[in-house]
Amino acid sequence: MAKDKKPRRPKAVTPKGFRDYFGVDVTERKAMLDTIAEVYHRHGFDPLETSAVETVEALGKFLPDVDRPNAGVFAWQEEDDGDWLALRYDMTAPLARVAAQFRNDLPSPYRRYAMGPVWRNEKPGPGRFRQFYQCDADTVGSASVAADAEICGMLADTLEAVGIPRGDYIVRVNNRKVLNGVLETMGLSDDAARDDVLRTIDKFDKVGADGVRQLLGKGRLDASGAYIDGVGLSDDQAEPVIAFLTSKADTAAQTFENLRAAVGESKVGAEGIAELETIAELLAAQGFGPDRVEIDPSVVRGLGYYTGPVFEAELTFEIKDEKGRPRQFGSVAGGGRYDDLVKRFTGQAVPATGVSIGVDRLLAALRAKGRMGGSEQGPVVVTVMDKTRMADYQAMAAELRAAGIRAEVYLGNPKNFGNQLKYADKRQSPVAVIQGSDEAERGVVQVKDLVLGAKIAQSASLEEWKSQPAQFEVSRADMVARIRAIIEGENDAV
Amino acid sequence: MAKDKKPRRPKAVTPKGFRDYFGVDVTERKAMLDTIAEVYHRHGFDPLETSAVETVEALGKFLPDVDRPNAGVFAWQEEDDGDWLALRYDMTAPLARVAAQFRNDLPSPYRRYAMGPVWRNEKPGPGRFRQFYQCDADTVGSASVAADAEICGMLADTLEAVGIPRGDYIVRVNNRKVLNGVLETMGLSDDAARDDVLRTIDKFDKVGADGVRQLLGKGRLDASGAYIDGVGLSDDQAEPVIAFLTSKADTAAQTFENLRAAVGESKVGAEGIAELETIAELLAAQGFGPDRVEIDPSVVRGLGYYTGPVFEAELTFEIKDEKGRPRQFGSVAGGGRYDDLVKRFTGQAVPATGVSIGVDRLLAALRAKGRMGGSEQGPVVVTVMDKTRMADYQAMAAELRAAGIRAEVYLGNPKNFGNQLKYADKRQSPVAVIQGSDEAERGVVQVKDLVLGAKIAQSASLEEWKSQPAQFEVSRADMVARIRAIIEGENDAV
């Protein structure tokens, strides 16, 4: 250590792509997570909290050819044994590891929920962060589509529980097996050709049916003027895919009819449609109508990844984007069935289905609608008029707290009284308590109603100012009761 | 990618030194964190959640001489700019960074609390984990010992709030300045000699006053038979240190008297004693007597690190160690004043004081005392007698949930009914609901009281078995009410 060298001062910065959360941003997210956990728990899901760190091997990111296996994850090498560890990038990979590791101890089916941060080693950008919250529920070990239906219904219940009213969201359900049926009907047996079609379908949200038709055929000129090569299918060949994507009709019965036409004779396709029909029936029996959960074959997100039913929750109300243009808020949760979850570890296929809620997006949605956010009331601030009487001020704060009122004593330099009131304003305190030696002798305190004070300062005439004093004297014995009345009055007025 | 090579199966293991938490272990910790947050919040502390990741530079772990600056932390290098990032190892370093970065926006003083995991890159061992929870409260920007007193009182309140009764804990307070006074009196002006004495004092908990006396002098034969060299002070020189460490008397007044003798003419020593006296006065005024917070100069933990008052919370009850021998539970929280917090970043000294609660240890203590832990009641399990009537079973579960009762439908293969009841047992379900086609036709369900059933199976005579059936038939319409009665009865019986 070069002790005599003067070290450069470190920079005080949040690392790129990471965020700090203050005050109400912390408590609002916590309240949302609590609500979601309660809904999941009531459905029989048990909490699981794995460590933030996994072996890179267990995460499935181990590529033997590369030097640093950290593409997409934050990884580092252990010093003693050279093992690579990494931060989890989602909640599903740790679940797969746990389901394999503890398969003899866990109940089967195993319903679990998990919530917490995940980390992505991606280039940060506007609105793209490298740490964010996920909130997952999964059922491991059930092949029944009743498990999928349960997840969809629970998702709808959860959205309503956190404050999205019915009508402002829709859970949409599709099924990979139906698409497989379509591909079968098309005669695409070649894996590479199927992958091409899957990749193309993924762009349906962006380019629409005509765009997909072009991309499945000869190709397409995109918005930037670049020509995107097509898959090279004939129009006839491409048609079943388009029929599938656009099969949603006014009634579920008609949608199923359209799907049956799209899959033709395919057995897996028929199986997929039957699954969707069962899901719709199960949900209807529990009171989830198509206003909450609907079968919608245009849901393409995750079709490449999942092996059966696929779901997505969308918020359907409009918000204004950063340029003031109205746009749909869009997706806040997604999931589906993935039956190879545990197989990587044990060789044994274990059916599983689950959903992941993007908590940060959901919070943003509620804030955009004004249903959350804004400021939290600060503590009552007991000011310090006389430094030698600190014990009295502390006793006042303790008394307020004992009565359930958030309170603190000003702990900065008390010399400048104006600074104490400025501090109370910055804290968004509802009330400041003032007691000089004169008041102490007379057994009284001054109570300053800061909310009323600010209101009067903004708008009141001189007469109102006089008739509605924002500061008044109360006996020390009445202090707690009077302050409580002020705070309760303000809360009522909100 | 060698696609044709059969990949080795990954091992499903929690990484060394990390843990997974299931069910009640998650909810109990959450409940404790919630309670602690509530106490902190009521004292005017605001939540802060920084990202898990910091720049190594900001953490203060940057050593320009070493290749991998990750001694003690989990660190990795960014690919684009070569910066080193790391997981936070405590909550104080991120607070220092935030206090510097946002110094113009935060109120001053800034009271904040933070809770979450921290990571240590240490050799894991029994009971030593590489990820654990901390729960901190700090006041930044107040030089007043009233801030220290507030933290000590809040710590006592917090311990009681989480379920440690008065008498089972003690918050002990010492002051680094008093020790500085002692060192001054000893005529130790040499930094190296002071460091030697500080390091020796650190062993007071282990070796006691006589051991410290030997270690300050010629040296000492330790328990393993190794000879530990001493600092080389004369007995006369060492005496003030021993006097300081053993100065605690039956009354605070006598303790202060003893301390005054130990620091002699030292100005900083007198200042330290005055601070302790003020802290004792402030706490007494709020009702914190020496049964909850006491001045105790034998607290040595952190004396090397902190710059003023130092506090430690200890649980005073006995538990049995792994060999069944009784021992004191010991420390569950510690903290103190550290006035150089922000200086590293800005060059400007900012006074700060705070405390960190070891949540995992506190949970262990409550479990050791039987005040927490054990099992949580599972959900009501609606069994599946008839696969084609899944929608009816789902509707039953939905109805139970709507009534606030945790419930789920069995989602495994329903063929073997015994497996369904085994599943319900494993889930610790209070009740199983059974409805075959016969019951469905008659509009009834079978309700099986699993708690009562287990009790009867254990101990009942044949007569009791008959008179107290654990399974009975109820009309479908009465199902929810009857199940609620069973669950409430069980909860009352606990």
Automatic annotation (TrEMBL), chains A, B:
Stated EC number for the protein is 6.1.1.21
Please state what class of enzyme this protein is: ligase
**SUPFAM superfamilies linked to this entry:** Class II aaRS ABD-related (SSF52954), Class II aaRS and biotin synthetases (SSF55681)
Q: Which GO terms are recorded in the biological process aspect for this UniProt protein?
A: histidyl-tRNA aminoacylation
A molecular function (GO) term = ATP binding
Instruction: Show the catalytic activity.
Output: tRNA(His) + L-histidine + ATP = L-histidyl-tRNA(His) + AMP + diphosphate + H(+)
Q: Name all Aminoacyl-transfer RNA synthetases class-II family profile domain ranges.
A: 29-379
Q: Which residue ranges does UniProt annotate as crossing the membrane?
A: none
GO CC terms: cytoplasm
Could you tell me which Gene3D superfamilies the record lists for this protein? Anticodon-binding domain (3.40.50.800), Bira Bifunctional Protein, Domain 2 (3.30.930.10)
Residues involved in L-histidine binding: D90, M91, T92, R120, Q134, D138, R301, Y305, Y306
Checking InterPro entries in the record gives:
aa-tRNA-synth_II, aa-tRNA-synth_II/BPL/LPL, Anticodon-bd, Anticodon-bd_dom_sf, His-tRNA-ligase, HisRS-like_core, HisRS/HisZ, HisRS_anticodon
Keywords of the record, alphabetical order, are: Aminoacyl-tRNA synthetase, ATP-binding, Cytoplasm, Ligase, Nucleotide-binding, Protein biosynthesis
Entry's localization field: Cytoplasm
**How does the record describe its quaternary structure?**
Homodimer.
PANTHER family tied to this protein: HISTIDINE--TRNA LIGASE, HISTIDYL-TRNA SYNTHETASE
> Which family is it part of?
Belongs to the class-II aminoacyl-tRNA synthetase family.
What protein name applies here?
Histidine--tRNA ligase
